[in-house]
Amino acid sequence: MQIHRIKSISEYHRLRGLPKPQHLLISLIDFESIQYSAENNPVSWVLDFYSIALKKNFDAKVKYGQQEYDFDEGVLFFISPNQVFSIEVDKNQVSKLSGWMLLIHPDFYGIQH
């Protein structure tokens, strides 16, 4: 499985078909506005920023480290920079996904990673 590193919030917006972020260090994203593509499923991801996500109607498998997790109704998910994770979403469930994701670059608070 390939690992895709996303180095900036702007890059994340570009990969997900979103407009440019209003701020380079922080972004709030509505999951209904994200464009999904088949080549991103399954892929392992590494972010160079923090992600806090509240997902509803989340019928997917998440692999974080060596552990796989199943979520039936939803999930509150926290990811630190440089953590490897993958999300395998049933392509029939993507249109039902809802919730929010907050992306925060470490420089926003002067956090070192």
Task: Write a structural description.
The protein has 113 residues and is mainly beta. It has a single domain, classed as Jelly Rolls (Sandwich), CATH 2.60.120. 6% of the residues lie in helices and 43% in strands. The chain has one helix and nine strands. A five-stranded mixed beta sheet has the order 1-3-8-5-6. A hairpin with a 2-residue loop joins strand 5 and strand 6. It is globular. The two termini are 25 Å apart. The model has no long low-confidence stretch (mean pLDDT 82).
Major sheet description:
5 strands, mixed
Under the CATH scheme, the architecture is Sandwich
Radius of gyration, in Å, reads 13 Å
- The N- and C-terminal alpha carbons lie at a distance of 25 Å
* Number of structural units classed as domains: 1
Tell me roughly what share of residues is in helical segments: under 10%
What is the name of the CATH topology? Answer: Jelly Rolls
Number of helices: 1
Q: Numbering strands along the chain, what is their spatial order in the largest sheet?
A: 1-3-8-5-6
Class, according to the CATH hierarchy? Mainly Beta
The structural class is mainly beta
Approximate strand percentage? 35-45%
Low-confidence stretches: none
